[in-house]
């Protein structure tokens, strides 16, 4: 997992941090510290769903629902679109469950975010990771 996180951070981290910073109104350094925490959480949820909730079919369903092949070509547009969602789902359906809400609240408190912005954080990042 750490190789994936390192590779993601090296290749996309600066751009994702900049865009996330602009959408949340936090410093880029603060946004960049969130990524290594959120990435393993989403990947762990994906693994658990695959192992306990339907194997490859479940994995395919989640990837089709939350991911897109071209999403990394428009990081800013993806984050901005997710930031505008009226009802963000930090649980990502069943992928993270209540852990997604709890993590969002914790990140929100760390960064001094409003509840709405805190709940948007994981949904903003999920398409980029998946």
Brief rundown of the structure:
This protein has 130 residues and is mainly α.
Please, could you describe this protein's structure?
This protein has about 130 residues and is mostly helical. The protein has one domain. About 75% of the residues lie in helices and about 0% in strands. It has six helices and no strands. It has helices at about 1-25, 30-50, 55-65, 75-85, 100-110, 115-130. α1 packs across α2, α1 crosses α4 (about 75-85) and α2 (about 30-50) packs across α6. The mean pLDDT is about 90.
Overview features:
single chain, 130 residues, mainly alpha
Strand coverage percent: under 5%
Unreliable stretches (pLDDT < 50, length at least 5) are none
β-strand number: 0
Succession of helices and strands: HHHHHH
Largest sheet: none
- Binned, the helix content reads over 70%
* Count of discrete structural domains: 1
Q: Give the end-to-end Cα distance, rounded to a whole number of Å.
A: 14 Å
Cα radius of gyration in angstroms: 14 Å
Class computed from helices, strands and strand pairing: mainly alpha
Overall pLDDT:
90
Task: Note the overall shape.
Answer: globular
The count of helical stretches stands at 6
